[in-house]
């Protein structure tokens, strides 16, 4: 009797241990991946990883690969690939980073992202017990030294200069445009400095019965920003701007301001979620080409603004929303409210909805020239017209159906 009880107890313990091991490790079966990464080039990934099962429906996937990116101080991008485990792989999450140089081509970027995808796939294959089904080859780039020390003679400063010219000519009309721009930037973990300048000239010429009608627009803008990281959530900045624009009757203007910003989320997760509140205050000086509707040829103004910015990158979609309001201190009725949004939401495995919208409530056009605009000014858009609002947007619905498992790539024709 004691022997039977002992054998029964041993069998019972073995069963409990076996069940515990099965629960802690996913079943040995095929793992399905959903790739949510535009810059990865889905066709390229499928060609390079023929042994990996990708699905078009995130609800069928065991792992959701979600991408996001942030611009680096050198002018390139830092890409984040978040591997989100689901079903039996729930809470088995990974995050990898890839930094592309400013001069990186699309092919170099997709190859860099492919390397991260391979790394993540191997991890899930390993914990799922199917790693033995594939071969792994490791190598290094030529002349790679593990303890190489990089010395930067530019001290993280980046300089960029560009210029362009285009033209079009017909028998009775012609146009040309010229643009030159410059950018200087330095970014570190604790602060960033950016200086930008841009000068544009655009001219149209129309000939009607020997009469020549000319529309010439000039725009010059320069800005300098200095932003300091105060804590994982707080930032402060100083901002300066110079502008000259014939379209808006501005001979020249300068703007100086200081601001503070708070992010509800720590900045080290800004690749996935940002929710900031910011405040700015400063002063502006204006010199106009023509006397304005307020009988001003120049003026100095004090202003303040408050804004909110929300950015979310999640498996269910993407949200980018911005709201900002500003006014002048000498007259609170002279103000502006700006709203913009870019939202894409996956409703289910087949439907997704997207919307883009921007709108402004405008009560601060102090620069408008006095007098009525001529018909030529209106048709050629030679001057900004009075308005109390601006609106624009797009909304749409996407529907996808068919096979969720087709991984075949065929690029013929």
Report on this model:
With 413 residues, the chain is mainly beta. The chain has a domain at 7-133: Rossmann fold (3-Layer(aba) Sandwich). The chain has helices at 2-24, 42-48, 106-127, 375-380, and strands spanning 32-36, 53-54, 63-71, 77-85, 94-100, 157-169, 173-187, 191-208, 211-229, 234-245, 250-263, 273-288, 298-314, 317-328, 331-346, 351-362, 389-399. The strands form two sheets. The chain has a twelve-stranded antiparallel β-sheet, with no helix packed on it. The protein has a five-stranded mixed β-sheet with strand order 2-1-3-4-5, with helices on one face. The termini are far apart. 10% of the residues are buried. The model is unreliable at 1-28, 144-149 and 404-411 (pLDDT under 50).
Sequence of strands across the biggest β-sheet? 6-7-8-9-10-11-12-13-14-15-16-17
Q: Return Rg in Å.
A: 29 Å
What's the multimeric state? single chain
- What is the global morphology? elongated
Helix content: 10-25%
CATH architecture heading of the domain at 7-133: 3-Layer(aba) Sandwich
The overall average pLDDT, rounded, is: 81
Strand residue content: over 45%
Number of strands: 17
CATH class of the domain at 7-133: Alpha Beta
Distance between the termini: 78 Å
Produce the secondary structure layout.
Blueprint: H1 2-24, E1 32-36, H2 42-48, E2 53-54, E3 63-71, E4 77-85, E5 94-100, H3 106-127, E6 157-169, E7 173-187, E8 191-208, E9 211-229, E10 234-245, E11 250-263, E12 273-288, E13 298-314, E14 317-328, E15 331-346, E16 351-362, H4 375-380, E17 389-399
Parallel strand pairs: 1-2, 1-3
Antiparallel strand pairs: 3-4, 4-5, 6-7, 7-8, 8-9, 9-10, 10-11, 11-12, 12-13, 13-14, 14-15, 15-16, 16-17
């Amino acid at each position: 009797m004691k022997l039977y009880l002992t054998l029964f107890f041993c069998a019972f313990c073995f069963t409990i241990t076996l069940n515990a091991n099965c629960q802690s490790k996913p079943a040995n079966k095929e793992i399905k991946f959903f790739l949510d990464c535009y810059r990865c080039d889905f066709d390229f990934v499928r060609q390079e990883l023929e042994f990996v099962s990708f699905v078009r429906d995130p609800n069928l996937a065991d792992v959701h690969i979600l991408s996001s990116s942030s611009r680096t101080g050198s002018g390139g991008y830092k890409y984040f690939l978040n591997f989100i485990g689901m079903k039996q792989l729930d809470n088995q999450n990974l995050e990898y980073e890839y930094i592309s140089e400013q001069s990186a081509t699309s092919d170099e970027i997709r190859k860099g992202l492919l390397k991260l995808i391979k790394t993540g796939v191997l991890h899930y294959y390993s914990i799922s017990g199917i790693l033995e089904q594939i071969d792994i080859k490791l190598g290094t780039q030529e002349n790679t030294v593990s303890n190489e020390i990089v010395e930067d003679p530019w001290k993280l400063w980046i300089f960029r200069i560009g210029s362009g010219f285009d033209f079009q000519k017909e028998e009775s009309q012609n146009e040309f445009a010229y643009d030159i721009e410059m950018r200087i930037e330095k970014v570190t973990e604790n602060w960033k400095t950016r200086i930008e300048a841009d000068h544009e000239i655009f001219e149209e010429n129309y000939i009607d019965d020997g009469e020549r009608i000319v529309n010439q627009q000039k725009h010059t803008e320069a800005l300098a920003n200095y932003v300091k990281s105060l804590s994982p959530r707080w930032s402060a900045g100083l901002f300066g701007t110079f502008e000259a624009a014939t379209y808006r009757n501005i001979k020249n203007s300068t703007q100086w301001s200081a601001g503070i910003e708070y992010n509800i989320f720590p900045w080290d997760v800004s690749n996935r979620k940002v929710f900031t509140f910011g405040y700015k205050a400063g002063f502006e000086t204006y010199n106009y080409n023509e006397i304005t509707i307020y009988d001003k040829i120049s003026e100095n103004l004090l202003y303040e603004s408050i804004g909110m910015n929300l950015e979310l990158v999640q498996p269910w979609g993407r949200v980018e929303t911005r709201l900002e309001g500003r006014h002048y201190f000498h007259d609170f009725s002279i103000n502006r409210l700006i709203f913009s949004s870019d939202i894409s939401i996956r409703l289910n495995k087949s439907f997704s909805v997207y919307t883009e919208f921007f709108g402004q409530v405008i009560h601060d056009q102090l620069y408008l020239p006095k007098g009525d605009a001529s018909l030529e000014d209106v048709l050629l858009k030679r001057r900004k017209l009075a308005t109390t609002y601006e609106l624009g947007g797009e909304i749409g619905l996407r529907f996808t159906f068919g096979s969720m498992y087709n991984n075949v790539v065929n690029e013929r024709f």
